[in-house]
Amino acid sequence: MPEIENVTETTHKNALFGKYEVGKLLGCGAFAKVYHARNVQTGQSVAVKVISKKKISASGTGNLMSNIKREISIMRRLNHRHIVKLHEVLATKTKIYFVMEFVKGGELFAKVAKARFSEDLSRRYFQQLISAVGYCHSRGVFHRDLKPENLLVDENGNLKVSDFGLSAVTDQIRHDGLLHTLCGTPAYVAPEILTKKGYDGAKVDVWSCGVVLYVLNAGYLPFNDPNLMSMYKKIYKGEYRCPKWFSPELKRFLSRLLDTNPETRITVDEILRDPWFRKGYKEVNFYEEEYKVEKEEEPKVKQLNAFDLISFSSGLNLSGLFEDSCNPADNGEIFISAEPPEKIVEKVEEFAKANENNSRVRWKKEWGVELEGRNGNVAIGVDVYQLTDGLVVVEAKRKGGDAGSYKDMWKNKLRPLLISGQTSQP
């Protein structure tokens, strides 16, 4: 077995956490390696993505850790035939392991690099890509890094979207209704991202899909230049040429996908009705999972699972959940409490009433409340999540204002009222 880590959780010398026999290296990057592995109980092949927390910390880029946490949160909510499935997440103090569906055929990029595809085969892959992208958008998820390297092909020749590390969710949309983070791969980036004025996540995904479709049919990029700024100018102006073997229908369709104006660019719903797209099209349920899952009645308080725990935990180290506190001058804090969730929310409201000259309740949901200073100098959100029948996780976040005011209101005033129901450390 490759030396990916000397893991104390291993109960079998060749099994990671006693569950997965790790095999050959499939690929690697600056902060992660991907291995083929086998579930020792079921024999199922899986891919294990191993991320080094030490390398991430050494990079000094806090956004990388945020991206990993967001990727966990996003992948656990997606269940679609053309999206790589995340089975589970495991963690140690030094590494985090994504256990994912193993896609045997490898990257679509490797296939198109050998030879361009026929228009019919390109259309088939594009239909599957739009199936996945439309599903993500209907769930409030925007990929933002769609390219052949992030599209895998299984043994049956079906496409699977992977790598949600740069994805965004609707929660990240600002008051102007747009996303503002600059990200993506240069050759696939939409022109509106280059303006740095904000962009629609769904629109930029459609643009990237257009670039992918061009590459599948042509075998090369529509916008390419050794000088990055020259390439960006071509993207911004929409300057590309279609090779002679492109059909008139494909050229017309591409012009709608690669429309530099996001307002007039074709939408996913319009793609589904387009004549070129529908040629040879077999009915596919684009907004439903391949199989139905019996839905349980939603609990009043959100139940947390292992994915949530790792997402919450400071630095992806689960021990952080059980520490008494983190630095209150930071943007938030998490602790475990034995208080009923309704009691915690009630205490926050009582605090606001008792300190009405300094604070007020800005809004309230069933098991969450946001508090705002009267002079607008600070805003604190408090959310409660069910951990077990008798325990809850209380998460406080600074929603606005300066760190000093947050520290004063949270550490000196509100936290002491809520911490009284906290459990003792294990």
UniProtKB/TrEMBL annotation:
Residues 299-323 form the NAF domain. The keyword Transferase applies. The keyword Translocase does not apply. Its EC number is 2.7.11.1. SMART domains: S_TKc. It is an enzyme of class 2 (transferase). InterPro entries: Kinase-like_dom_sf, NAF/FISL_domain, NAF_dom, Prot_kinase_dom, Protein_kinase_ATP_BS, Ser/Thr_kinase_AS. ATP binds at K49. GO terms for molecular function: ATP binding; protein serine/threonine kinase activity. GO terms for biological process: signal transduction. This is non-specific serine/threonine protein kinase. It comes from Juglans regia.
